[in-house]
Amino acid sequence: MAHLESTARPAAGILPLDRRILVRVIGDDRASFFHGMCTADVKGARPGTILPALFLTEHAHVIADAFIWVTNDALILDIDAGAWTRTRAHLEKLLVADDVEFDDATDLALIDVEGPAALDATAATSLAEWRFVESGGSLIGNLPRYGGPAASVIAQRESIDSTIDAIVAKAQGAQRIDSSILDTIRIENGVALVGVDTTDKTIALEARLNRAISFNKGCYLGQETIERATARGGLKKRMFGLKFNGANVPAAGSALSLDGKEVGRVTSAVCSPRFGVIGLAILHHSAWTPGVELKVSEGGVAIVTELPFAQN
Fold it and tell me: In this structure, what CATH number is given to the domain that contains residue 162?
């Protein structure tokens, strides 16, 4: 498989997201239950909407993130397979008399299309971000899941190869890619990967997961901590970008220090064709000034950078 460089124009890189699963949520109470269990405004969403969402503890620590596709008769949860195991256990503890059922949609598969030609390749050009339509038995959405222009297709699993072939044939420069390019795209766009850039003690706002939080909805698990941190500016840690001065990609977990004190650790790092060696880290507030140089435990220097990298 080829790599899709984010500088290529036009281009669409296509791959099935095998590590994610789709779960149909049915039952009359599905919207009200999920509204209270996650950060998205589920009750206010119309069919045809895709909601980025977080599942949090009562202290707003991140359990998992997901995308919720709202249809007329179900919510379709688009979530990492490993994350679904712990999320389902978390949700089932809180299900009492609610009419809500989870059905693993093993008949469906998820295809991601990344790049500037992604919307043209999937006939999603007319869609606003976070919207989807049904076409030919598939759901096609304008879904910037890794922060850049992208589309997602939910198709029948038995037709996944033919669906990908049709997308490749439609867009000039389109090609199948492997999953390694997704890390480059998301890091360039400053999108945290839950479980990689976060721990079970990370508060959602620390990882800049704001796009998945509705700040206008009613009560949900973890809301009090989110509102307190938002209103009082009480965050002491926050995710920033890093630009490294060498050609080597530092290992995740490499310590970062300022004036001899550790202020964070590298959580993700890649060699970007656009920006060189870059990474992400959740930093102590003493290191929040863009341009500050941090020492890397492996050697070399990391320059603190605002996110996304493309705006700098």
Answer: 3.30.1360.120
Q: What is the mean pLDDT of residues 133-144?
A: 95
**Residue 302, domain CATH:** 2.40.30.160
Domain boundary among 141, 162, 186: 186
Residues 150 and 244 in one domain: no
Whether 4 maps to a domain, the answer reads: no
Residues in the chain: 312
DSSP one-letter string for 28-89: TTHHHHHHHHBSS--TTPPTTEEEEEEEE-TT-BEEEEEEEEE-SS-EEEEEEHHHHHHHHH
CB 286 within 8 A of CB 236: no
pLDDT, mean over the chain: 93
Q: Could you give the CA distance from residue 195 to residue 211 in angstroms, rounded to a whole number?
A: 17
- Residue 99: which domain range? 12-186
Q: Cα–Cα distance between 171 and 264 in angstroms, integer?
A: 42
Q: Based on the fold, state whether residues 182 and 200 are members of the same structural domain.
A: no
Residue 228, pLDDT score? 86
3-class SS at 312? coil
Are 109 and 16 in contact by the 8 Å Cβ rule? The answer is yes
Residue with tokens 């996650």: 38
Q: Which two tokens stand for residue 282?
A: 């959740």
**Which residue is associated with the tokens 């064709």?**
273
pLDDT category, 17, cuts 50, 70, 90?
very high
- Rounded Cα–Cα distance for residues 54 and 38 (Å): 5
Element (H, E) at 129: none
Per-residue pLDDT tens digits for 197-239: 999 999 999 999 999 999 998 899 999 999 888 876 778 999 9
> Would you state the pLDDT for residue 312?
67
Q: For residue 215, how many other CB atoms are within 10 A of its CB?
A: 11
